[in-house]
Amino acid sequence: MASILNPYIGFNGNAREAMEFYREVFGGELTVNTYGDFGQAEAGGGADRIMHSMLTTTAGFTLMGADSPQGDQDASGGRISVSVSGEDAGELRGYWEKLSSGGTVMVPMEKQMWGDIFGMCTDRYGITWLVDIVQPQS
Fold first, then answer.
1. For the chain, how long is the longest CA-to-CA vector?
2. pTM to 2 decimals?
3. What are the residue ranges spanned by the domains of the chain?
4. What is the CATH architecture of 81-133?
């Protein structure tokens, strides 16, 4: 098997909600395991926090996420950017609409100086998304 690189996003108590949102955006299958599932029920209220989740999509995307253990600071600080790019304008615009809804648009989805249609937003969970619709070279 070839090596693969996947984004793994750290959350501070809302990983389940965020990962379910990403499943609505991208589709696919979501698996979720809590700290309690792994025998850490003594973690108090933290037993229901997400220890590991993974979203796999038919488009070939894999996105992982977890809550930091209760009382710990968010491991990632929520400071990660995720880039999604390709040539299927309809699919990518659909992702953009869902990701930017309820979030903050920093760069509107429009043609950029390098020729692609690009937008950048921070979603409602504080994650920055870069969506790039690659334009065919003439």
1. 61
2. 0.83
3. 8-67, 81-133
4. Roll (3.10)
